[in-house]
Amino acid sequence: MKNFKFLLISVIIIYGAYFLVDTKTENNIQDLNIIPIHVDDVENIVKRESKEKNVRAIKSKLPKELINSGLIQLLKPPEDRELEYVWSEEYGCFDDELEDSCKYDFLNAKSVIEARWMKNNGYPTKSMLDLVNNPNYKNQIKVLARSKYPAALTIASIEAMKLGNYREAAHLALSNIAYSDKSKTYPHVLYGEALVLDEKTIAGVTQLFIAGLLGDYMANGRAIGLTPDVAYTTATINSAHNYLKNIFGLNVPVDPRPMGDDGG
After folding, report:
1. Which of 69, 233, 252, 260 lies deepest, with the highest CB count within 10 Å?
2. CA–CA gap between residue 179 and residue 202 (Å, rounded)
3. Helix-strand-coil percent breakdown of the chain, rounded to 5?
4. Residue 37 in contact with residue 254, Cβ under 8 Å?
């Protein structure tokens, strides 16, 4: 009997706390608080552990022959210690004598700091994107994409856009968002660009604004450039805010994209 009373009191306390928090949230919908979250914050640690569990779950469903094929290793970005030496080749875009230096013009880092930001936000490397040109890996990437492996979804979506399959590109990019850390900006940028090309401009602009609110000023500028008037801008920004509120609540994790070439 004593245990039952204790359980009843606990349930009442929990429901009361939920009611107070929910009411406070409803009263502050218009005051969405976007704050930077530092690398050592507990929320980031929890998020990273959750992401690692998600990656392990995806890997556990992959065909064994692909896990052992070496492709998974090739789809990993450079380690930070290596990035210092290869950032311009993997994430940079320069108008110089280097052949194919701007083959992927969205990979336009101006410094190692910006390249690290791109890596942390889900941008693929040039080496990853070039894998689709290798007959030994092209079909394997498709299999990994069907298995919802995020890096393969990114590459397959970009390849579909190059081929003009915009609806397929959007579908792959949306899957990438679902199976990636939703605080990463590039999956939202990729989905937004695919939607715009598929003539779903309002939804595409909203995704670009989402990336902008998460810290990508270039995505934000791209979104503004696609909006014809203030009403359109307001509506899509509000949709982006609502999306982020539904995912993260009132504390949206912002990772500002480095500007300029400082730190190169």
Report:
1. 252
2. 23
3. 65, 5, 30
4. yes
